[in-house]
Amino acid sequence: MASISIQESCHLHVVEAGSNDRDPIIIVHGGRGTADHKADFFAFRPLSNAFHLYAYDQRGHGRSSGGESASFGRLVADLEQLRVRLFGQRPISIIGVSYGGMVALSYAISYPEKVEKLVVIGCAASHDFVEPALQQYEIRRDCAPLTSKTMVRRMLDTGFDSDLELRLAWFALRPLYGQCANADELLSAAASIHFDAALHRSLVLNPAYDMRNRLAAVEANTLVVCGADDWIFTPQFSKEIASGISRCELLIVPDCGHAAHVGAPELVLSAIHQHVAGRVSVPRRRAPAW
């Protein structure tokens, strides 16, 4: 573990696993003011048998500082500064999950020559995911009875006024994700996470986020993964990303929600291993009709 200074006001908390003589992968976690590196690093840790994994808390999250200056563009720039601090001018492979997938995708567009292999899981190339997510919520709201459409919109689009509101909304909405086996696990997770409503508000995406016309700038071999039952980023958004990148494979994982790498770890980690190692192409999978 290390704290890496990328500028005077920001130190990023970094963890690693795997041998130094293996090809490096940087993992960019999801969540905006509601997460840190831990869950995604744990999920991807089996890959350390073949690669040298690095994961970090993004600016203002977990044990990293600098939240007062956080913005989407700043997080993308942070990833470049971290890459330089760790690897100099060496290109790297990146795995980005959810919001971290948007950061990773934008990074690969802004710094195409610095990314060899790119994996994005459950994300979108534009802000247009919000209204379809609200529609999916209406279909599935019975599984999260303590929620409202207004609560979902605030989580995805406008933010909350206090840390407590954000914590309570996260707890109420989590059954939609299908990641917690029972209420006790859900309660434990909600109690242990550091929630930062101000950070969440500062990172809520707006209509200015639109990478669709810039996807052709991605030079990296790319793997796009999504769960067939993802309610936030429905498969249409992964298809859109895959269709815009010249060297890209699409993996739609059946019977999985937003975190396909958690719902089907053997399938997804195997696909990532093969993709980053560059030995086997990942077959395209057809998404179900919505």
Account of the protein in words:
This protein has helices at 38-44, 72-87, 99-110, 130-140, 149-158, 163-173, 183-192, 197-203, 235-244, 260-263, 265-277, and strands at residues 2-7, 10-17, 24-28, 52-56, 92-97, 115-121, 221-227, 248-253. It has 290 residues and is of the alpha/beta class. The protein has 2 domains: 2-128 and 206-277, Alpha/Beta hydrolase fold, catalytic domain (Rossmann fold); 130-203, no CATH class. An 8-stranded mixed beta sheet has the order 1-2-4-3-5-6-7-8, with helices on both faces. The radius of gyration is 18 Å and the shape is globular.
Descriptors:
8 strands, 11 helices, 2 domains, single chain, alpha/beta, 8-stranded mixed beta sheet, Rossmann fold, 290 residues
- In terms of quaternary structure, what is this? single chain
CATH class of the largest domain: Alpha Beta
Question: What structural class do the secondary elements suggest?
Answer: alpha/beta
Q: Count the helices. How many?
A: 11
How many beta-strand runs? 8
For the record, the CATH architecture of the largest domain stands as 3-Layer(aba) Sandwich
Question: What name does the CATH topology of the largest domain carry?
Answer: Rossmann fold
Domains (count): 2
Q: Which strand order do you get reading across the main beta sheet?
A: 1-2-4-3-5-6-7-8
Give the end-to-end Cα distance, rounded to a whole number of Å. Answer: 43 Å
CA-based shape: globular
What is the CATH superfamily label of the largest domain? Alpha/Beta hydrolase fold, catalytic domain
Radius of gyration: 18 Å
* SSE series: EEEHEHEHEHHHHHEHEHH
Approximate helicity band? 25-40%
Low-confidence stretches: 280-290
Beta-strand content estimate: 15-25%
Largest beta sheet, briefly?
8 strands, mixed
Mean pLDDT: 92
GO cellular component, one term: membrane
Keywords: Hydrolase
InterPro entries: AB_hydrolase_1, AB_hydrolase_fold, AB_hydrolase_sf, Peptidase_S33
Domain AB hydrolase-1: 24-262
